[in-house]
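> Could you send the DNA-3-methyladenine glycosylase I prediction when you get a chance?

Sure thing. Input:
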Amino acid sequence: MAHYCDLAPGHPWHGPYHQEEYGFPVGDDTALFERLVLEINQAGLSWLTVLKKRDAFRRAFDRFDIDRVAAFGDTDRARLLADAGIIRNRLKIEAVIHNASVIQALREEYGSFAGWLDHHHPLPLADWVKLFRRTFRFTGPEIVGEFLMSTGYLPGAHRDDCPVHQRILACRPAWHTA
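Output:
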């Protein structure tokens, strides 16, 4: 089976994501929220579809401003469902808005979304999945695993012999320092 490290290099969409983002530690709440939104929207679709729609998602969800998205109302929901630039799935849109509100609450208790993740790290994937399911909407095993791997909380984003892997290790991802 081919690994992302085999498929992504040189690809116009996968290449930059593989080289500059995938697996690198993320500490900024806006970037974490964006990654969670993208992973939720990937469910049932290809990652390429999501990457191609990324700019449209940024526009549609106010550059992933957590407070603004948490305040979205019925007019925003209707706007999002009519936006052909994004994935127009009512359950996913509702999950994104709800999850923004959850992150607001996590910031109150843990200082940030990253603080909440750090507080619970390290956990095995099965425990992460249980925690995410209790906390967020639309977060099954695949979404949680990819979200945590892509943000440096779980290993496996890159093969050990991938040149990007060494760059990630130099950034001290949570999974490597635990």
